[in-house]
From TrEMBL, chains A, B:
Pfam families: MarR_2. PROSITE patterns: HTH_MARR_2. Residues 3-126 form the HTH marR-type domain. This is HTH marR-type domain-containing protein. SUPFAM superfamilies: Winged helix' DNA-binding domain. It comes from the Bacteria. The lineage of its organism: Bacteria, Bacillati, Actinomycetota, Actinomycetes, Micromonosporales. SMART domains: HTH_MARR (SM00347).
DNA sequence: TGGAGTTAGTTGGTAATACGAACTATCTCT
DNA sequence: AGAGATAGTTCGTATTACCAACTAACTCCA
């Protein structure tokens, strides 16, 4: 499988997974973007700007996004000890719990498509 | 690699690709959702409801989304010949051109991460 | 070492995105 | 023929997202 074929398959897989994430997010009163935030914070504690870069969003977009999730008790801010301008973002226990619950739903939703997805991303595809 | 491990890797890969798509969309004055629409319409001609289901969005969200893209000449609506309630959506030539241009940008942006992504999705990962 | 130039994050203004509820038109099925 | 279901739109509201402008803090070199 050529690199271009692999990347096309990956992008198609991404569209499929993103559709699933969007639907599961909506069912849990979360936007796709918020879901992405939780997925990233699951095992990271980035600064606001790093989070924005990873999401591909402007940092000004992050303020409101973080505000609303913080108001719901799902994540929190903390001053970065090395740079007093910087703000670290991380999941609260409630946020961690929610994230694991969401992941379980996503895994369940993806299971029926698993074989097809695996095949589409592996070498021996025409 | 277990199914759960594969799905976790796939979701992480999705987050990464989605970040790239978001950034490239923004650079071309397109939202992530519009980009997803183009990626789906690339080789399909679904009804509005089918498109909504694939995106994981409510059908009421589609109207405005399609309106704005149609106003920009990137996609078009057509009455479904078999069901007069239904509306088919498809890319215009300009939309096709833009989509191919975007795909080229995405492939280029993903190239540096290719080996890592491939490895993360393949069997022999710890 | 002091200040010019960067960088981190927020705020405010505007447009796009997204949902649910309510509506019209059409289809299905008995 | 008509009751109920389905396809799509419209409307009202909240969220998401950009840019420009701003403050605070950091860099670094002259």
């Amino acid at each position: 499988m050529s690199s271009d074929d692999f990347m096309d398959a990956l992008v198609q897989a991404t569209f499929h997974v993103t559709g699933v994430l969007t639907r599961i997010g909506a069912e849990n009163d979360l936007s796709l973007t918020q879901l992405r935030v939780f997925g990233i914070l699951r095992d990271r504690r980035p600064r606001v700007t790093e989070l924005a870069a990873y999401l591909g969003l402007d940092k000004s977009t992050m303020s409101g996004l973080i505000d609303r999730a913080e108001r719901r008790g799902l994540l929190a801010r903390d001053k970065n000890p090395h740079d007093r301008r910087a703000v670290d973002v991380f999941l609260t226990p409630a946020g961690h719990e929610l994230t694991e619950r969401l992941y379980a739903q996503v895994r369940e939703a993806l299971t029926p498509d698993l074989d097809r997805l695996r095949a589409s991303l592996h070498e021996n595809t025409p």
